[in-house]
Amino acid sequence: MTSANHLLEVKNVETHYGKIIALRGVDMTVDRGEIVTLIGANGAGKSTLMMTICGTPRASSGQILYDGEDITGMPTHEIMRKSIAQSPEGRRIFPRMSVMENLIMGAETAGNDDVDGSLDKAFDLFPRLKERRNQRGGTLSGGEQQMLAIARALMSKPRLLLLDEPSLGLAPLIVKQIFDAIRDLNKTDGLTVFLVEQNAYHALKLAHRGYVMVNGKITMSGTGKELLAREDVQAAYLEGGRH
Amino acid sequence: MSSKSENFFTDCVKDAAMGGLIALALFSVLIGMKAEVASGLGGGLGIEYRWAAVAIAVAVVFGGRLLLNLFVWKTKTPVTEKAGSLMPSMSSLAPLGKYAMPVFLVLAVLLPFLLMSAYGARGSRQYLDLAILVTTYVMLGWGLNIVVGLAGLLDLGYVAFYAVGAYSYALLAQYFGFSFWICLPLAGILAAFWGIILGFPVLRLRGDYLAIVTLAFGEIIRVVLLNWYEFTGGPDGISGIPRPSFFGIEFTRGEGGFADVFGLDYSSIHRIIFLYYLILIMALITNFVTMRLRKLPVGRAWEALREDEIACRSLGINTTNTKLTAFALGAMFGGFAGSFFATRQGFISPESFTFIESAVILAIVVLGGLGSQIGVVIAAIVMIGGFEFFRGLEEYRMLVFGLLMVIIMVWKPRGLISTRAPSITLSGKKGKGISADLVQEGHG
Predict the structure, then answer these.
(1) Which is more confident, B121 or A191?
(2) In sequence order, which residues have a C-beta less than 8 Å from that of residue B132 and are 6 or more positions away?
(3) Where do transmembrane segments lie in this chain (chain B) (predicted)?
(4) For residue B436, which residues of chain A lie inside 8 Å, CB to CB?
(5) Distance CA B355, CA B156 (A)
(6) Could you count the other beta carbons within 10 Å of the beta carbon of residue B47?
(7) Per-residue pLDDT tens over the stretch B127-152
(8) Which of B40, B140, B259, B305 could form a disulfide with B264 if both were Cys (CB 3.0 to 4.6 A apart)?
(9) Terminal Cα distance for chain B, rounded
(10) Chain A residues near residue B431 by CB distance under 8 angstroms
(11) Of B54, B86, B118, at which residue does a domain stop?
(12) Would you say residue B97 lies in a domain?
């Protein structure tokens, strides 16, 4: 695999919150057309890595390359305009705005010239949103809000989709629906996905490759199947987790 | 059944009697005995007993508690509930917003003529003055609505921009002899500039912290105006601020005056009517610009910012610029209103720009319903009109005002008009207003 194939490359990144170190030299790559997942326990630094890629907080050392371009020091809003889209942890939809407005917000800064096309696509992916398009975002159920958050991220026609815990607080059936949608997007559009998850079983089943993070460091990596089969992974993250 | 109601009654009486007993114990000392400098005792202290007053006080407590027990506290259907149900519900008010806009607009345009025909030129003057005042507050409310209602940035120092606008015009006119029409845009630009200056350091702040900083900023501006005696005249203020002209035609008696040019008999009411239409047009422009902006990306970005700042950043919105534009635009309209205020009064001093003004403007926006344009109009009429209406009651005015606030906040915690029309819908379909009822208070 050549380095030209890397869409996202994180090189020896360290991040601090004040004096506390959150990431201790993280290396990872996401290749074009891949689904890569990052799993780990609470407080391991998964979300910090995701947010460091987006520019808040800034990495205190190391380098982050997107499509060969150094984005380490860029302000967040400029990073997010580079065909990267993120669905943040806890969904964070706009509760008082309608579903339509939420979706339009996703396309606003991306210079998307085919908003209607993107809308149709979003509604195809999540038909539930079409039914609820004039409803206030805050009145949707948790699963629908997660669908909305993902659909909103997709409105900018990204090449790289960053998902932070899309299964958070959702029923297993809804989780399956959402993961199926992610798989579809990857297969049909070749969308590259970087997925941060607690739900290790589903995430590793979905992903081509996975990383395991412990205490701000990547401790294991491999294909999804490999990691699923490993006993230490099973013991730490999957025990009783096959729901 | 009858024994039950008898029980209920004796319960109430017992409870009231208990209250009366406690009142007796307290009042016999508090009210019953009064230490007095008795003249007959050569300046020594004497005690005067006032048992009648104690009896009255205890009777009031007993009677009051009994009535409350009978009708409010212990009954299954308290009278307050009935009173609550008498108030119009959400759904019955919904169509109001739809028709209120055109009705208000027509009324506002025709107002001077209606007043003139009803009260004559002399009698209508005070009502027109009130209308000008209300419209000024409507404009200020609309201006602040951009910052607070749309962008969700709590600004307690809005009056600072009002002051900047007023002083910009007054000082430019005093030192350079500029006319109102040149100063109006300049005042707006200067106020917007101050909005940006304030905006930069406070961009990281939100909510309570932002409120405190803006509050301080409002005070700083006022204190500077108060103490910079050589430049601003300090507490003496600036007087003799030139009146606006009708596109170069002054409102003066005799040759070349407004009345002369248009072949009318001279009357001082002409200027008042002109001022009224001036502020009405300025306010309508504010409204128009806000309504347009709401449907543009920047307006939607403001609303998104109010909803969730982190989500905004994850969508590539430059939150710094978005906040700054909101601050600058809100400040600009405040500045316009300020220079109008200066030209109307002809005299300004820092006293007109105290914190209470900011509070009143903010109250108008909140009572009207954050982000609702027509709500601001209704709230401004009720509050400013109410202020003037209760002027005769003097010290009870604030009491009534406070009571009104409490009632509105209990009855409609989100303000009078709390629905929000989506700024975009699928083509052809008209979007229905989104009620605020389903979202937690304080969260949108």
Answers:
(1) A191
(2) B272, B275, B276, B279, B344
(3) 16-37, 49-73, 93-115, 127-150, 156-173, 180-203, 209-229, 274-293, 324-343, 355-384, 396-411
(4) 96
(5) 8
(6) 10
(7) 999 999 999 999 999 999 999 999 99
(8) B259
(9) 49
(10) 98, 134
(11) B86
(12) no
Q: How far apart are CA A125 and CA B306, in angstroms?
A: 28
**Which tokens in the block code for residue A119?**
């809308």
Min Cα separation A233/chain B (Å): 31
Contact A134 B425 (CB under 8 A): yes
Across B345-373, average pLDDT: 90
User: Which residues in chain A touch residue B319, judged by CB atoms under 8 angstroms apart?
Assistant: 77
Give the pLDDT score at A243: 46
CATH top-level class of A1-83+192-243: alpha beta
Q: Where are the domains of chain A?
A: 1-83+192-243
> Which residue's entry shows tokens 């009207």?
B368
Whether B424 is covered by a domain: the verdict is no
Mutant choice from B307, B315, B441 vs A, greatest count of A C-beta within 10 A:
B315
Do residues B211 and B155 lie in contact, with contact meaning Cβ atoms separated by under 8 Å? yes
Query: In B, which residues are within 8 Å of A110 by CB distance?
Result: 316
Cα dihedral A56→A62→A66→A71 (10° resolution): 50
The reported pTM is 0.81
Are B311 and A92 an interchain contact pair (Cβ–Cβ within 8 Å)? yes
Same-domain check for residues B230 and B367: yes
Owner of token pair 């083509």: B427
Q: Which domain holds residue B20?
A: 2-86
Count the Cβ atoms, other than its own, within 10 Å of residue B154.
19
Is B315 close to A108, i.e. CB distance below 8 A?
A: yes
Partners of residue A160 on adjacent β-strands: A84, A192
Do the domain assignments include residue B30? Answer: yes
Beta strands A192-197 and A160-164, pairing class: parallel
Tell me the per-residue pLDDT of B26-66, one tens digit each, with 9 for 90 and over. 988 888 888 777 665 566 777 788 888 899 999 999 999 88
Q: Which ranges constitute the DSSP H helices of B124-178?
A: 125-144, 159-176
The ipTM value here is 0.88
B31 within some domain: yes
Assigned token pair, A213:
């993070």
